[in-house]
Amino acid sequence: MEDVREALFKWTCLSLQVDIESKRKELVDISRDNDVIIWNRCTKVEQELDVLLKEDECFFDGGCEGSFIQMDPLKSPGIDGLPTDFYKRFWSVVGEDVSKVCLECLNECRYVKMINHSLPCLIPKMKNVERMSDVRLINLCNMIYKCVSKALANWLWKVIDFVIADSQSAFIPGRLITDNAMVGFECMHALRRKVNGKKKGFMSLKLDMSKAYDRVEWCFLEVTYSFILNVKIRGTIKPSRGLRHGDPLSPYLFLLCAKGLSSMISRSERCGDYAGFWCDRLGSKITHLFFADDSLLFTRATTKECVNIKRMLGFHLQASGQTINFRKSAVCFSKQISSSYMKVLAEVWDMAIVDYYDRYLVLPCVASRSKRILFDGIKERVWR
């Protein structure tokens, strides 16, 4: 029965796509003809195409059940305390009502305020918790909201690759963290090898976004929070910023936010205001590498470009609500730049000058002879 249902759902989607393409082709053929009688047919075809597109945009019952199947059965129960496993086991009993509510929320925007309420909760990362950094924040969301959010995330997953540039490798299907790591290491290695004094030097900026998820401003969202104190739910807060940890939609919302900075850098590069960096003459130009909130920028080491980058960052920070922790950020220069000029450029950023970054995307940038120091962190995490 499950196989038949899945096959029927795929056939319905495919049939809709065929009908849509057929109507589009018919509309193109009509637009090429100058006959008045045929042009009267154009309005009817447009209306039929609008109906098909609306059907294609609607969510179906199979998508709701598929969202529950993809969720972890015992991870983060809802406000009512019922885990996903309950809905999976008794789908034959509650499935019809749950699907009806989810579809009304997705297609008609009903019950949004009712289901968009969650309880923040702290869970320990280790046995003996001593600091706030030893705990992880999660949100206990309504199970209906989780289903709706997962369904939207599944649809975004299909198209996000066409929206987000190749410089961003986080949460995108077909892209890996190792892609950015290898490109970043090659660029930093080439940056340190450039010693030709006839040309201007280059620099790279490693930016640390402070609490990136928590500072993203989404004032149009209708989420509300309550807190569990002494086993009772108390208070109601409506935040003006922050993405919920554990929400399937949060990674994609953050990528759309980070796309603003990526688009500004790409536009500046096309206009000739941002040079970027080449590992060699035949290589591709690298302007920036993003992995979620981890940012690595490459450009020429000039005051003009530093001011231009700082201006773009200012626009992005003002629009998104994020802030850069300049104390944890660093700048690296090619060898041909004098130490006095390095200090001048570093003052523009008010950040430390380093010969190389200790780590990029958790991986060490430089491997010394002592492998014990290099892998001590991995050993510590395994035994923890």
UniProtKB/TrEMBL annotation:
Residues 104-346 form the Reverse transcriptase domain. Pfam families: RVT_1. It comes from the Eukaryota. This is Reverse transcriptase domain-containing protein.
